[in-house]
Every structure is written in C-alpha cells, then in structure tokens.
Write a structure and sequence with these properties.
Radius of gyration: 16 Å
CATH topology: Collagenase (Catalytic Domain)
Number of strands: 4
Strand content: 15-25%
Oligomer: single chain
CATH class: Alpha Beta
Shape: globular
C-alpha cells in the first residue's frame, strides 16, 4: 500500500472514473500543482460516482476573482466573483467521449471562504469541484428536494475522498 495514500485510496473505497479525461488550464491566480491534483482527484471521484467509467472529457479553469467576476457578469448577469461556475457542453453526435463542459474556480474567493468557514483550502476546493461536476452531470439545488439529493451525493463523494462533511461544518459554524 502507498504510505501517502488517503483513506479513500484503501481497498473497498469507490474507485475514481478511469474514463474521464480532466484538462486543467491555469488561467490566473496563485494556484499550485497540489491544487491541480486536488481538482483532478475530486473531478474523477464525482464523475465515477455518477457515470462510472464511461468515456468523457472535462475542462477545469483555475482562475482568479477578476476572471470569474467577468464570466459571472457575462453568463449569469451577476456582479462580482463566485467560487465555482459550471458550463455544460452540448452533446456531439458520434464523439467517442462525452464533452461534459467546463468548471471555473476562483482562487481568492475559495481561499476567503475556506478561512471564514475554518476549512482546509484543499478540502473546500475539492467540495467545489465535486459540486461543479455534479452540475455538469445534471444535478441541481433549485428546490429543497433537489438540494437534499445533491448534498447527499456530495457528502458520499467527499467521504470517499476522506473529507469531512462540509454541511455539518457549515451548521456547526452557524450554531456557534
């Protein structure tokens, strides 16, 4: 066994999706290689939990607040940055792999939220990648029933990654 393996790498844990190709573009911001690995691992785990090993492609943009704020204004009509944006792709007939779409992450916003919520940056980043990928796979949280289903799936995926339930942490910080 790999001595640096996390609990999710142990036998019996859900395997990541071998069929997903994750392309990571460092657009802007103070991202490092460790963050890129967190992104790749979280994306594989989220995809595998829903689609297994079916071939697919995903693009992830590591950006800064300014870039995400511009995208947020252009595509959602909202001012300011947000932590994660998801842009689904149209299906291309005859393609060998499904093009899931793009996930865009804002470095500074994620860091501020992680600090405010007393979470590890990497854990919060993984949660947001999982959240973004689930949106690309058709999950949403427009109503309570959808939110409950999506949160339950996020919790399972994050547990498989060895990450504490982010919603319990959110409730604990609100109740304090």
């Amino acid at each position: 066994m790999n001595p640096s393996a996390r609990p999710s790498d142990s036998p019996g844990a859900a395997a990541p999706a071998a069929g997903l190709e994750v392309d990571i573009l460092h657009e802007a911001g103070a991202w490092d290689e460790a963050a890129a690995e967190v992104v790749r691992r979280a994306a594989l785990r989220a995809y595998g939990a829903v689609r297994g090993a079916a071939p697919a492609e995903l693009s992830v943009m590591l950006a800064d607040d300014a870039r995400v704020a511009a995208l947020n204004k252009t595509y959602r009509g909202k001012d300011g940055p947000t932590n994660v944006l998801s842009f689904p792709s149209a299906t291309i007939a005859g393609a060998e792999a499904v093009l899931l779409g793009d996930v865009v992450l804002a470095r500074e916003t994620i860091a501020r939220e992680a600090e405010a919520q007393a979470k590890r940056f990497d854990d919060h980043l993984a949660h947001l990648v999982v959240h973004g990928v689930l949106h690309l796979l058709g999950h949403d949280h427009v109503n309570d029933a959808q939110a409950d289903r999506m949160e339950a799936l996020e919790r399972k995926i994050l547990r498989d990654l060895g990450i504490a339930d982010p919603y319990d942490m959110d409730r604990a910080s609100r109740d304090a």
